[in-house]
Amino acid sequence: MFLITELIAFLCANLILTRALGTSTMFIAAGSRKNLIGTAAVITVFTTIGSAFAYIIDSILPQSLDDIRLLLYVAATGLIYVGLLFILKKFSGKNFVKYRRYVHISAFNCAVMGTIFTVSGTAENMGFFGYISAGLEAGAGFVAASLILTAAYRRLNSKRVPESFRGFPAMLVYLGIISMALYALK
Amino acid sequence: MDNKKNKSHEWLELIITLFGLSVVSSFYYGERFIFLCGVCIGVSFLTEIISIKLMHRKLTSDCLYSIADAMMISLMLPAVFSVKSAAVACIFAVVVKNIFGGKSNTIFSPAAAAYVFMLTSWKDDLLKYPDVNTKYAVGEKVKEFFNSASHSFNMEGRTGISNLDLMLGNFIGASGTVIIFLLVVSAAVLILRRGISAGAFLGTVIGTVIMAFIIPATDDIIESAKYSLCMNMTLFSAIYIISDRRTAPRRNFYAFFYGLFTAVVSYVIIATTAQENAIVIVSVLAAPAALGIRNLENKIKIADKADEKREAETVEQ
Amino acid sequence: MNNEKFSVFSGLWKDNPILCSLMVISPVIVCGDTLRNAEAIIYAFSAITLFSVTIASFLPKNLPYAVRIIINALVASLVYIPVKRAAQEFFPDIIPRIGIYFPLLAVNSIIILQTEAKFFKMKKPRMIASTVFYILGFDAVIAFISVVREIFGHGTLNEKVISTNAVISGLGQPFGGFIFLGLLCGLYRWLRHGKQLSGGDKNVSDN
Prior knowledge:
The complex is a heterotrimer. The longest helix of chain B has 30 residues, at about 285-315. Helix content of chain B is about 70%, strand content about 0%. Chain B contains 16 helices and no strands. Chain B has helices at about 1-10, 10-30, 30-55, 65-75, 85-100, 110-120, 125, 150-155, 165-170, 180-190, 200-215, 220-230, 235-240, 250-275, 280-285, 285-315. Residues about 1-5 of chain B have low confidence and may be disordered. The radius of gyration of chain B is 20 Å and the shape is globular. By secondary structure, chain C is an all-alpha fold. Chain C has one domain (about 10-195). Chain C is about 65% helix and about 0% strand.
């Protein structure tokens, strides 16, 4: 019973379904299992490490310099971006060209930046591990939303769907209905 | 041949059972319900025709599914619900269904999607009901609204309804979802005629009963199971929404677990949040799970065919 | 010459960033429910995008792709500072209205990705003109969506009550934004392509 209520709460807090953050990237992720695993893994890494950096920045930055918060978040994300590319190049060898696109599309994505801002905005009593777990939760939320979309992906791109709505428009309506059901449960 | 005939007239069996519920509802609520039902049917059918024409598709008997969906929607509403809002919801149901590719590509039950749409847009109007057996004329202002019996059951764990009233639907709630006797008969007819998924229906009922035993809503476990099935549109949803052949998994084995999962989750939500008619909302959320199971069934089917082909080739050799 | 002219205006209709490419849709879905919110987003998006793209176009082209992306984002974050200060000074209620979407507009995909894919391959005057029309295309769509959603979702227009009879309150919620945007994208495609759809989606398959 606890698991079910936690699952519902987790879905209700999903950044994609409730705040539309990272929707375009999710459309790419839902296209195939390979894309889903690649994009979800990279997004989760970005949101988790990005939240850790956000904790450090929030701890150091005084309120009077709030204007440069975005600049520092972007710089941190840039560091993660370069670091990930470097690690990928070192360990994936010939597959670097194949896998680097996941890093490119995930880096300055709404899902990543939105997570960092959301975590920062709701972080009154959260410590370092609180930030990290919030980042992990956002990544898991992206995976959950992508799985929800993957289940319907073939149908939404089927020839039975009217041409004008085939693909992205139908996906938006589909996500809207799922989001509507979650809103009804709140 | 008989299977093909059955498949193409599933909508007819649904309409016949829904018609029975509508007749009894009109007995309780009079011309107001008849008008509401008529508007829902008219608007849905017209929207379906227009959608089909815009998509340059042929009109087939499958278009009549929209009538079944419209009747389901009208039976899930208070008899005095705004006709304008009901019409908008019916248009929404048909448009969404056709955007996703029509009957053969349905993702959500149109009635469930429309109900959730109304719940999020007109919640106050949707969950207030007139007294049962109070007939209002079209356009007449409703004197007093009441909470449904489901609401009382969710909040207090008791309803004070006699078994006879329960069977005949003589208590406050959505017009057609409370006539328990007729719902049971409809379920039996539709299962025997294969108009609905037997696995999904049984899964939903058994799931609700098991949860009522594990987390009883009342002191008496039997009473808890009885009211859990009769309240919150559980039985109606088990028949017409979760067991809808358009959306439920095809094989009864998988459909059973799909129904069980939906029933368990909705029971927990009702127990923890007292959300009225949660099963309808959960059926929309469980649609991706049903789709995932259908994808799995397709893969199994393809794998089985490949195995058969290989075996046949081996035998030939 | 006609082709070049055509591509400068393409952001307005043919290659509209929201309806065609589904870029920057988060603020449209969540905040695009009232005209006032739309004005805030239009101001932030237009100012940040135009200045960021123009300034970033002076960067050397021979840098590695990832470095260029990061610098584009950093430039946009720097441009964000005066835009935010101006908003605080002259339109004080903008930032509370759109919350986290204000800074998120600074890292929108037009600045980060579209610049590398399209804008920086053009000559400067055409690039600026093209950017302006992309911005106008975005502004027009979000304004339209916000007006419709405010009228039918809240029964108001620019916070003045119009009618409460035809209110569908769900339209003002994020899920209403998803559904309405999906329907609008479908309508856009139907208007642009009519009976045929050229260059449709990938992975079109039978069920």
